[in-house]
Amino acid sequence: MKNVSWYFHQNLKPQGPLTFEEIRQRIHRGEIGPQSLVSNTADDRWMPAKDWGVFEDALFPALQGQELQKNLEEKCWVLLVPSPEGKGILQEGPFSLMELKQGIQQGQISVQQFIWKSGLSGWCKIQDRPEFDRELVESIL
């Protein structure tokens, strides 16, 4: 994989070329999620990053610490939100898992927004985290 160039989709546009190590770093930081489409020059297919088999699950912030949160009230999640002036992004929180789920159900929080908690290597979309029920996410999308 040393001489292979990698690409990923961002806002429906291919980004790259990147080395294998550069794409791994972007995955580790949460810039490329497990469902993000990725391709390389050795194989013209576009597939979700997690399906390539060369990126371990622990590399993806969205898949790290998959044990489900036992305490729904523990305030450990931070959420990225647009600033009121629309000129940037702010961090809000901490929130509990229950608060985030209620915000999603009430339409105040989008499953496309990014979250983080201690122990994750980077930010990831709410929809990619196992703590958020598939049914809840799919009903919103």
The CATH class of the largest domain is identified as: Alpha Beta
CATH topology of the largest domain: Dna Ligase, domain 1
- Intertermini distance: 36 Å
Number of helices: 3
- The radius of gyration computed from the alpha-carbon positions, rounded to a whole number of angstroms, is 16 Å
Largest sheet: 4 strands, antiparallel
According to DSSP, the number of beta strands is 8
Going across the biggest sheet, name each strand in turn.
2-1-3-4
Instruction: Give the CATH H-level superfamily of the largest domain.
Output: GYF domain
Q: Which class of secondary structure composition applies to the elements?
A: alpha+beta
Provide the low-confidence segments as ranges. Answer: none
Broad shape: elongated
Mean pLDDT over the full residue set = 86
Series of secondary-structure elements, N-terminal to C-terminal: EEHEEEEHEEH
Tell me the count of domains: 2
> What would CATH call the architecture of the largest domain?
2-Layer Sandwich
Strand residue content: 25-35%
Roughly how much helix do the residues carry, as a percent range? 10-25%
